[in-house]
Amino acid sequence: MRYEGQIYRPFSEANSYLLQCTVGCSHNGCTFCGMYKDRRFRVRSTDEILEDIRMAGNHYGDVEKVFLCDGDAVCMETETLLAILKALYDTFASLRHVGTYVGPQSTLEKSMADLARLRGAGLTKAYLGVESGDDAVLTDINKGVTAAQMLEAGRRLVEAGFNLSSMVLLGIAGTGEPARRHAALTADITNRMKPRYLAALTYTPVPHTALFKKVESGKFVLPDPFETLEEMKVMFENITIDNLTFVGAHASNYLPVSGKLQKDKAAMLQTVNAVLTSRNMNALRPDAMRGL
Ligand code: SF4
C-alpha cells in the first residue's frame, strides 16, 4: 500500500484498511494539533486512489472495515467520494463500514442531499473533532468554527444517518473556572448534537505546536490529572441524552472510564469520585504510559 507521511486513525479503526484520500488536513490550524503540520494539504488524484483500492483488493482479498485518511476526507468533491465508495464496495464483498474524520467546515459546505447520498453509498461513520462546546475555547485553539457551527455540523451528520463519534478534549481549557465551563458546555453541545459515541481524550502538549509554546512560556497552565477527572465528572453529571457510548479508554487519559450513558452513569461517576476522593496517584495511568 502507498502512503505519504505519518498516517493517523481513531483507535477504533485499528482493524480497518487505511485508504489515504487526502494528504494532511484542509484546516491544519488547531493550535494543539501537530498531526499534519509537516505537510501541505492536497487531495490525492482519483486515479491513484482507485489504483490503491485495486492493489488492496489483490493484497487483502476481502475486508470488512475501511478508514479514509487523512484529516478530513469529507472535504473532497462528493462525486469523487461516491466513486471511491463504489470502488470499495465493488472490491470488498464483506465491507460493512467506511469511516472518516470530518472537519466541521467541510461538513457545513456539503448540502444535506450530498451528505445523504454519501451515507446511502456506504460512508457509515464520521469522527468529528468537537474538542469543546465553549466558544472561548474554540477561538483559543483556532478550531475555525463557533460552537453553534460545530453543533450544526454534527446535527447534519446525525440527520443524514451517520454513526457520529464526537471527540472532545479534557484539559484543553486550562485550569479553574474556564475548565469547569468547558466541561459543562461540552456536555451541553453533546446533549444537543446527540452523537452515538463521545470519545474523550486528554490534551497532551505536542512539540512544535502553538499551544506547546504557550505551555512552555507559562501562558497556558496545564491542569493536573485530578482536574481532568473533575471535567469528566462534570460531563457525566450534565449529559442527559440516552444510549450514548462514552469512550474514555484512550491512552492519553489518566483514568480509562468507559460505559453507556445513562445506564452506567452511577458506576462511571463512582469510579471517578473514588479517585477524586482518594487522590491516589497510583490509581492513574502514569505520564510515561500516556500518549496521543
Ligand atoms: S485537530 Fe483535526 S482539524 Fe484541527 S488541525 Fe488537527 S487534524 Fe486538522
From TrEMBL:
Transmembrane segments: none annotated. Keywords: Iron, Iron-sulfur, Metal-binding, S-adenosyl-L-methionine. InterPro entries: Aldolase_TIM (IPR013785), BchE-like (IPR051198), Elp3/MiaA/NifB-like_rSAM (IPR006638), rSAM (IPR007197), rSAM_sf (IPR058240). Its cofactor is [4Fe-4S] cluster. The keyword Membrane does not apply. GO terms for molecular function: catalytic activity; iron-sulfur cluster binding; metal ion binding. It comes from Desulfosudis oleivorans (strain DSM 6200 / JCM 39069 / Hxd3). Residues 11-242 form the Radical SAM core domain. This is Radical SAM domain protein. Pfam families: Radical_SAM (PF04055). The keyword S-adenosyl-L-methionine applies.
